[in-house]
Write the structure tokens for this entry.
Amino acid sequence: MKKAVVLLSVLLMSMVVSNTGSAFAKNDKTDGVYTVLTQGSTDWVNVFTPTQKPWLLIKFDDTLTNPISRWTDPLGDKFKSTELVVSGKNKVWLSFTDDFWPGLGDDKIGKWNIRAFEKLDDGRSLIGTAHFTVIPEPISSTLFLLGGGALAIRVYRKRKQNA
């Protein structure tokens, strides 16, 4: 019995540590199109939980006036970002409104693809892509493992008692 509890505790702790590390991996990027956690942030994040609203940062040397982004969800549905925040001449943050993102529910879990583009006054086009993944909350996985562990212990005890 003690071995089962120790094994379950070790498994639970390793899962919590691995989820925490992967959910908040950040790098700095200089120019291009990438996802960030908040409006105004320049720290790249490529894994989000369902409660975190992703933002797309478009950052180039050229002046940005009217960038467009198309977001494709894990089911293949396409959306256009609905919130635009321009900061300075060469940084733009795009996302969804606060009531749209939660309304997607479980459909937002999985890999998302974003294509962003803008046509410049001189005829050139800026085009970029970004990808991010929405994962279930770490607590959900933890509760699932705890429930499974409790059921396994119950089955083990019943078998031991019947033997």
